[in-house]
Design goal:
It is a multi-pass membrane protein. This is Na+/H+ antiporter NhaC. The structure is a single chain. This protein is mainly alpha-helical and 464 residues long. It has a domain of 239 residues. The protein contains 23 helices and no strands.
């Protein structure tokens, strides 16, 4: 057998052979997620090994195969660093009182007659600031579900507004892990990616807001349960000192983002300013600051609901996501380098031979991977690497691809019960995803609008 290092000297493996690593991942994921209820990391590792073995048997040298996953992972290193920084940012903003203050004062603006649009907007704002849909849902969202019961508003409707707002804000935040990961995998500028998503998420936001206003008018039957709100506010104020200075770090980070300062310096600035607030306003020690940055916040107030609200974050909380991203990129990089993805995509030319078909195929592929793999990161990484060459062939900017990946992969994740996002939301709100899915307007409107824009050629930018 001759082992070559130049991929152009070898033909692509057949479709049947190229599909073997995918079948291995699919079977392993099924066993891991549905049978043994374990993490999805090992199935991806097995898929990468299988792809490497097939590539080696086909004739590619180990050095050549290695260059595939190294190249794939190296493009995402800035995003992986951002993931770790985001973990620190969440923890220090909670410990410094920034997030508790936002939650505390957020309660005061919830008016029964406009409850649903109010929590939708508040979740949008909080998610943009924190860069985390999960943090928004796990903090303000949990309390908002309880408040909805006092207002006699169906909790699934409130959960839908919370999820819509949280994931909408997440998509527009330069501090979001998935929003950073998706463009970095394809070499797209972060701010260009966010701006391009506005063309589809903007209309879906406006439509959703109108629908929440109308829906809220029909659902509100009671009045606000002030005792319920007061319980949370009193417990929060007992453990945190509030000051107007706490709103300075979010404002500064927003200003930095507005002036297009790169994500890492902006995030690091947020971490450092949060540390200053923790040291001087919350009167914590430098040792507490270092410990929280790594291990996150673990609050013990005696009130379980508040403990769940504010115990989170830390660099260590992101290790699993970072490992998952590395394994996903390794798997996709080997598949791409050894021409296996090329072989599969060539057989799908009937589906990607036009702009509209390509957008729809991207959306459906992301949704399919979301459903089967139960992880939204795979739903943007794998299709991104599969269809990159197809977008270039049609002279379409890769911003169109990253937008479709976010629409189909990230925004549909919370609607799938066994997806990591859907499972998380169910665990903190006790509302099943299928119950709140009809009310999570952003999550299913955005993919529809993205597909329509693809077919009628609206905001489909050409490659420079």
């Amino acid at each position: 057998m001759i082992y070559l290092t130049n991929k152009t000297e070898l033909p692509a493996p057949s479709v049947v052979i190229s599909l073997i690593p995918i079948f291995v991942v699919c079977i392993a994921l099924f066993l891991s997620v549905f049978i043994y209820e374990t993490k999805v990391h090992i199935p991806l590792f097995l898929g990468a090994i299988t792809a490497g073995i097939i590539g080696y048997i086909h004739g590619f040298s180990w050095k050549f195969i290695q260059s595939g996953y190294i190249s794939s992972i190296s493009r995402a290193i800035p995003s992986l660093l951002i993931l770790l920084i985001i973990g620190m940012l969440i923890s220090v903003w909670v410990a410094s009182g920034i997030v508790p203050a936002i939650i505390y004062y957020g309660f005061d603006i919830l008016v029964p007659s406009i409850y649903l649009p109010s929590i939708f907007i508040v979740c949008c704002f909080m998610s943009v600031i924190t860069g985390s849909s999960w943090t928004t849902i796990g903090t303000f969202g949990v309390a908002a579900i309880g408040i909805s019961q006092g207002l006699q508003i169906p909790p699934p409707a409130a959960a839908g507004a919370i999820v819509s707002g949280a994931f909408f804000g997440d998509k527009l935040s330069p501090m979001s892990d998935s929003t950073n990961l998706t463009p970095s995998v394809l070499g797209v500028n972060l701010y260009s990616h966010i701006k391009h998503m506005l063309y589809t998420t903007g209309p879906s936001f406006i439509i959703s807001l109108i629908m929440y206003v109308i829906l809220g008018l029909f659902l509100v039957e009671g009045s606000s349960d002030t005792a319920f709100i007061s319980k949370y506010q009193k417990e929060i104020i007992k453990h945190f000192t509030f000051s107007g200075w706490l709103f300075l770090p979010p404002v500064i980070v927003i200003i930095l983002i507005a002036f297009k300062i790169p994500a890492i310096p902006s995030l690091v600035t947020g971490v450092l300013l949060g540390g200053v607030m923790q040291l001087f306003i919350q009167d914590k020690s430098m040792g507490d600051f270092f410990n929280i940055l790594y291990n996150g916040v673990h609050l013990s107030t005696g009130l379980e609901e508040v403990d769940k609200l504010l115990s989170r974050g830390g660099m260590s909380s992101m290790y699993s996501v970072v490992a998952l991203a590395i394994l996903s990129l390794a798997f996709g990089g080997i598949m791409n380098r050894c021409k296996m993805l090329e072989s599969i995509v060539k057989k799908m030319t009937v589906l990607v031979d036009s702009r509209g078909h390509l957008i729809i195929t991207t959306l459906l592929t992301s949704i399919f991977i979301n459903i089967f793999s139960a992880n939204q990161y795979l739903a943007v990484i794998i299709p991104g690497q599969m269809y990159e060459s197809s977008y270039k062939k049609l002279k379409l900017s890769l911003k169109n691809l990253t937008r479709a990946l976010e629409s189909g992969g990230t925004l549909t994740a919370p609607l799938i019960p066994w997806n990591s996002s859907g499972a998380f939301i169910y665990s903190v709100t006790s509302i099943y995803p299928f119950a709140f899915a009809p009310y999570a307007f952003i999550c299913w409107l955005t993919p529809i609008i993205t597909g329509i824009f693809g077919y009628i050629n609206i905001t489909m930018e050409k490659e420079d």
